[in-house]
């Protein structure tokens, strides 16, 4: 049983997690279409999120890079949820993230309030770098492991786990209830099969 939600998503954490989850949730989910299938799709997403200047040129190679980065983040978030496929794919996803990070450099910006990392470049490269900056921000604030993918196989939506002990497995109460009902029916079916008289 999941713990009640705690108010752990403070403003900077929510900003970073919303950006990364918005990126991961561009995948085809629950009957929706993939939102990153063409340069026009990626350009529209970058414009909506403010990650690249309006009119920044986007190529097919950029779309491929975006989808590969999205897949790596998705597998890491699935591993955070304890999903077997995420855990198997985790070493490759982490290796990919480490290998491509140099393409998207970040620089510190200091102020009286502290510092933050920002993309060193503009355009599409800067947009991808902003995703890395969000990940670093979350890791520094202790929120990285709370980014997960719902374990409901008919959902798989990325979400921020707000439970006190980071034990959340589902993106919503609806998915949690649905999976509990499915597990209950599965247990009853197995019990019925065991109790059935031999023929």
Task: Provide a short characterization of the protein structure.
This protein has six helices and four strands. The protein has helices at 11-24, 39-49, 60-80, 84-100, 123-141, 173-195; strands at 106-111, 114-119, 147-149, 158-160.
Could you walk me through the main structural features you see in this protein, from its secondary elements to its overall organization?
The protein has helices spanning 11-24, 39-49, 60-80, 84-100, 123-141, 173-195, and strands at 106-111, 114-119, 147-149, 158-160. With 199 residues, it is mostly helical. The model is unreliable at 1-8 (pLDDT under 50).
Work out the count of structural domains. 1
Reading the helices and strands in chain order gives HHHHEEHEEH
Q: Taking all residues together, what is the mean pLDDT?
A: 88
Q: How does CATH name the architecture? A: Orthogonal Bundle
Total DSSP E strands: 4
- CATH level 4 superfamily: Jann2411-like domain
The geometry reads as globular
In the CATH hierarchy, what is the class? Mainly Alpha
| The CATH topology | Jann2411-like fold
Relative helix content: 40-55%
Report strand %: 5-15%
Radius of gyration based on Cα positions = 20 Å
Low-confidence stretches: 1-8
Cα separation of the termini:
39 Å
Strand order of the largest sheet: 1-2
Total DSSP helices: 6
> Structural class given helices, strands, pairing?
mainly alpha
**Biggest sheet layout:** 2 strands, antiparallel
